[in-house]
Amino acid sequence: MYKTSKETQERKDAKRQLIMNTAARVFSQKGYHNTSVKDIVEEASVSIGSFYFYFKSKEELFEELFVTISATFQEVEDRVLDTGRFSLAQNFTRVIAATLWMYEQHRELAKIMLVEAAGVNPAFQKMRMESIKVSSGAMERWFTRFAASGSANIPDVKAAALIYVGSFYYLIQDWLESEQELKLTDSGYALCIYSLQALGITFKEEDIRRYIAEVLEELSQGDEI
Predict the structure, then answer these.
(1) CA distance 18 to 63
(2) Burial grade of 151 (CB within 10 A; 0-12, 13-18, 19 or more)
(3) CA 211 to mean position of chain CA atoms
(4) Among 37, 109, 166, 193, which residue's beta carbon has the most beta carbons within 10 A?
(5) pTM here?
């Protein structure tokens, strides 16, 4: 039975990643609908055959990009979260600021994923809704833990999670659709303050500003995302 060598597999993986990275860049520059497979392969300097060896279509490639970037966002959130070292308010603030920073770093691609393509392609819209459900579920589990520990006043954790996630995505979508050159992370302070107040979590405003500044500094000095 033929077995692919380690070196051959590494070359295949590298070419596949090259196509994905190139597609992300071209999608960002030209938009999803104005990007063709031909645009991607020409930019990546690979053949049409190579593209279809790894992906059945532009749609399949885009779906994988969506999944990959969603996973990267989760990795960043996990990286800044430390329940052993930081307080509830600090962890909450760090996660919000880090997520806003990630969207800021990938604005054009996020706009395509959350606004352009998701609005007209049922498959992408379903993926987006599933992503929101996952975020809401994670937040519900977090809020349940807050309520059980007595560190937050949350009468209905499910409703609180849905309201928080809905507000969060509305803020991001509004920023993506804005024509103004605004930094999404500039909204982090207000979002954190309002959220913590609504949850009944004790905090000092100067601490929230410091938490945001610290995590943004960590992310900006870290490895490229």
Answers:
(1) 16
(2) middle
(3) 20
(4) 109
(5) 0.82
